[in-house]
Amino acid sequence: MEPWLQNDVLESLRTGQEESYKRYEGLLDRNIARELSRIALPLSLYTEWYWQIDLHNLFRFLKLRLDPHAQLEIRAYAKVMMELCKKSAQSPSRHSKNMFCTRSSFKK
Predict the structure, then answer these.
(1) Cα–Cα distances in Å, from 98 out to 23, 26, 65, 93, 101?
(2) Max CA distance (Å), the chain
(3) How many whole angstroms separate alpha carbon 73 and alpha carbon 103?
(4) What does the DSSP assignment read for 17-76?
(5) How far, in Å, CA of 35 to CA of 55, rounded?
(6) How many CB atoms lie under 10 A from the CB of residue 61?
(7) Residue 105 contacts residue 68 (beta carbons within 8 Å)
(8) Residues 65, 75, 94, 103: which is the catalytic one?
(9) What global pTM score does this model have?
């Protein structure tokens, strides 16, 4: 994607998100229930999710998502997840050694 187009799209998305959130706040200011006010929010602002996973399956997920053939956005997401895993699982490298030893995208 051309840089000018990328910037244009990102600005359009940012502006749309801000406008939607202002509408949401305006409804709240008029004492409309939060449940109804959320209708003004796009799904990307509205969604919050939680999940749990064991390290074995997390590494399997990351192995697939860090692959050079994976979509760029999911690779970026997987890189962040790997960094979070490194921080919270003290030394996942011992468990992940066999899974990632051939992946150039994995760094201890």
Answers:
(1) 51, 53, 16, 9, 6
(2) 58
(3) 18
(4) HHHHHHHHHHHHHTT--HHHHGGGS-HHHH--------HHHHHHHHHHHTSTTS-HHHHH
(5) 36
(6) 13
(7) yes
(8) 65
(9) 0.45
As a residue count, the chain comes to: 108
Token reading at 79: 């890189």
According to the model, what pLDDT value does residue 105 have? 45
Q: pLDDT tens string for the chain (108 positions)?
A: 899 999 999 999 999 999 999 999 999 999 999 999 999 898 887 666 777 888 889 899 999 999 999 999 999 999 998 998 888 776 545 545 444 433 444 443
Instruction: Tell me which long-range contacts 79-87 makes (C-beta under 8 A, separation of at least 24).
Output: 79/105, 82/106, 85/55, 85/58
Identity of the residue numbered 58: L
Active site includes 65?
yes
